[in-house]
Amino acid sequence: MIIGVLAIQGGFAEHINMLKKHNIATVEIRKKTDLDHDFQGLIIPGGESTTITKLLHELAIYEPLAAKIKNGLPVFGTCAGLILLAKNINNQENSGLNAIDITVERNGYGRQSSSFSSMGTMKNIGKIPMVFIRAPYITKTAPNVEILSEVEGKIVAAQEGNILVTSFHPELTDDFSTHNYFLNMVEKSTKKTCKFF
Ligand code: GLN
Known about the structure:
three-stranded mixed sheet
C-alpha cells in the first residue's frame, strides 16, 4: 500500500514520519504530475486552508485531485485538511474540494490561544489523545455522514464513505490508531476495486 501525502504547505512531514515509522510507503504530492504515481489513499495535512486551497488551484492540482476523490480515492484530512474537504464553511465562500457533506467553523476555538490537547473517544477506536491547533469543528453533518467523535459537545471527527476528517492532529501524538483506521479504509476500498478484475 502506498499513501500519498499532499505536501504543498503545512504539517505534511509529521504524517510522512508517522507512516514511515509504521513501514507504510508514502509519496509526496507537490505538483500535478505527482498525482500520476501509484497511491491508494491520500492524506491532506493541517496548515492554512486558504493557502493550501490557493496553491491547489495555482499548481493545477485542484481539478485532477477533485476528480480522483469523486472516483472514490480514500482521503484523510486533518484540521486544515478537514476544512479543504468540507462542502460548507460558515461565513466563507468555499473553493475547496467539496468532498464531505459537513459544515465547518474555522478557528472554532478562537484564534491564537486556541491550541490544546485532550483525551477524546473515537468511535470504533476508543480513547485517544487529541491535539487541537487553531482547530475547526463541525457544526452540521448530512444524514449520510457518520459522526466519529465529539469533544465537549463539538463534532471533531466524521466520515462519509471514503472520506475521513478530524479537527485534531493524530500525527502529533504517538498514537497510530486514527491512521490505522484510515489505512483499513484504504485496504477495504482497494479490495472492492480488485474484485472486478
Ligand atoms: N486554522 C487553520 C485554517 O483555518 C487550520 C489550523 C490547522 O490546520 N492546524 O486553515
